[in-house]
C-alpha cells in the first residue's frame, strides 16, 4: 500500500486556504508565499517545492495556469487562477501597482456596448521634473502633427491582448475599487478620471468617435465639478480642457456645464487628436477635429 504524501494528508487544509484567499489570481511568488507561511502548520517537509505545490493544486484542486506572452519583449508571465477568473483580474495581476484605465475603464463604467478584446493597465511613471519653458503654438502644432506614441508592451492570452501603459505620475488620483462583471474586486479609474484619460490618449479607447459616444453615455452621470478638480490636479501642460469642453458640447451637455471648461482660458489652438489630415476647426473652442465628428 502506497503511503500518502504530506500534501495529500494536508489536502483539506490546503484547499480550504485557497478557497478562503481574498483573491482568485496568483503569481508564482504569491503561491510560494502561501506555501512558506503554512508549511509548518501543514507539516510539509522542506523538500516540498513550489513546483510540487502548484502541481498538487492543479491535480487535486481548482488551480489553472494562464500564460501571457509578449512577442515584442520575448517574455512570458505565468498566472494561476483558483477556479474561473476574469480577464480583468488576470490583467490587474500582471502589474502589482497597476490599475485598469482608458478603454477598459470605459467598458467597466458601461459607457459603450462594444465587446472588448483589449485590456489596458496603467502603471504610473516616477515623478518627473516640470518641463522648462512655456507652451507655444509652434510646439503644439509640431507635437500633434505626428502620430501619438503608443505602448508596445502588450501581452497576448487566448483572444485577449493586455497593454501596459506607463502613464503620468498621479499617485493613483481618481482610482477606486469597483466590482467587475463577475463580482470581482478591481481597481479602476473613476468616471471623471476616465473621461480625461481617454481625451489624453484617444488610441487607448478606440479613437475620438468612440470617445464622443462615451461622453454621450456619461452625460447624466458625470460630475463636471469633479472632472474639473481632477483635471486641475493632473496639471497637464497641454490645454486638454478645450478638447473636453468641445466633446461635452458635441455630446449635448447643457451649456452651463461645458462653459465651465472655458474658464481656464482659450489661449492656443489645440487638437482633438494627433496626425489629422484636413481637419475641421471650431472657433468656439479653438480646436481642430476630424471631419464628421
Write the layout of secondary structure elements.
Layout: H1 6-9, H2 11-19, E1 25-26, H3 28-42, H4 50-60, E2 63-70, E3 75-82, H5 87-94, E4 99-100, H6 102-108, E5 118-122, H7 137-145, E6 154-157, E7 160-165, E8 175-179, E9 185-189, H8 191-200, H9 208-218, H10 224-234, H11 240-250, H12 255-258, E10 270-271, E11 280-282, E12 287-289
Parallel strand pairs: 5-7, 10-12
Antiparallel strand pairs: 1-3, 2-3, 4-5, 6-7, 8-9, 11-12
Helix pairs in contact: 6-8, 8-9, 8-10
Order of helices and strands, N to C?
Answer: HHEHHEEHEHEHEEEEHHHHHEEE
**How many runs of DSSP E, i.e. beta strands?**
12
Mean pLDDT: 96
Low-confidence stretches: none
Indicate the percent of residues in helices. 25-40%
Structural class: alpha+beta
Gyration radius, in Å? 24 Å
Highlighted features:
293 residues, three-stranded antiparallel β-sheet, four-stranded mixed β-sheet, alpha+beta, 12 helices
Description:
This protein has 293 residues and is of the alpha+beta class. The strands form 4 sheets. It has a 4-stranded mixed sheet. A 3-stranded antiparallel sheet has the order 1-3-2, with helices on both faces. The protein has a 3-stranded mixed sheet with strand order 10-12-11, with helices on both faces. A hairpin with a 5-residue loop joins strand 8 and strand 9. The chain is elongated. The termini are far apart.
Amino acid at each position: 500500500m502506497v503511503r500518502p504524501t504530506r500534501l495529500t494528508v494536508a489536502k483539506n487544509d490546503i484547499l480550504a486556504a485557497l478557497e478562503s484567499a481574498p483573491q482568485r489570481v496568483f503569481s508564482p511568488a504569491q503561491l510560494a508565499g502561501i506555501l512558506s507561511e503554512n508549511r509548518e502548520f501543514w507539516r510539509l517537509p522542506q523538500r516540498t517545492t513550489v513546483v510540487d505545490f502548484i502541481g498538487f493544486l492543479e491535480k487535486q484542486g481548482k488551480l489553472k495556469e494562464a500564460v501571457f506572452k509578449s512577442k515584442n519583449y520575448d517574455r512570458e508571465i505565468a498566472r494561476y487562477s483558483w477556479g474561473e477568473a476574469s480577464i480583468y483580474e488576470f490583467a490587474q495581476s500582471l502589474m502589482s501597482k497597476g490599475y485598469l484605465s482608458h478603454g477598459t475603464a470605459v467598458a467597466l463604467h458601461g459607457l459603450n456596448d462594444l465587446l472588448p478584446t483589449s485590456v489596458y493597465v496603467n502603471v504610473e511613471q516616477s515623478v518627473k521634473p516640470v518641463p522648462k519653458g512655456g507652451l507655444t503654438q509652434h510646439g503644439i502644432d509640431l507635437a500633434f502633427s505626428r502620430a501619438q506614441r503608443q505602448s508596445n508592451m502588450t501581452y497576448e492570452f487566448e483572444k485577449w491582448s493586455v497593454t501596459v501603459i506607463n502613464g503620468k505620475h498621479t499617485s493613483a488620483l481618481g482610482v477606486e475599487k469597483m466590482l467587475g462583471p463577475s463580482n470581482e474586486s478591481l481597481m479602476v479609474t473613476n468616471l471623471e478620471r476616465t473621461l480625461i484619460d481617454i481625451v489624453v490618449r484617444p488610441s487607448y479607447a478606440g479613437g475620438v468617435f468612440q470617445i464622443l459616444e462615451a461622453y454621450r453615455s456619461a452625460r447624466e452621470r458625470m460630475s463636471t465639478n469633479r472632472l474639473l478638480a481632477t483635471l486641475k490636479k493632473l496639471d497637464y501642460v497641454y490645454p486638454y480642457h478645450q478638447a473636453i469642453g468641445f466633446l461635452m458640447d458635441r455630446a449635448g451637455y447643457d451649456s452651463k456645464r461645458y462653459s465651465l471648461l472655458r474658464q481656464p482660458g482659450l489661449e492656443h489652438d489645440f487638437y482633438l487628436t494627433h496626425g489629422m489630415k484636413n481637419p475641421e476647426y471650431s472657433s468656439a473652442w479653438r480646436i481642430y477635429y476630424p471631419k464628421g465628428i
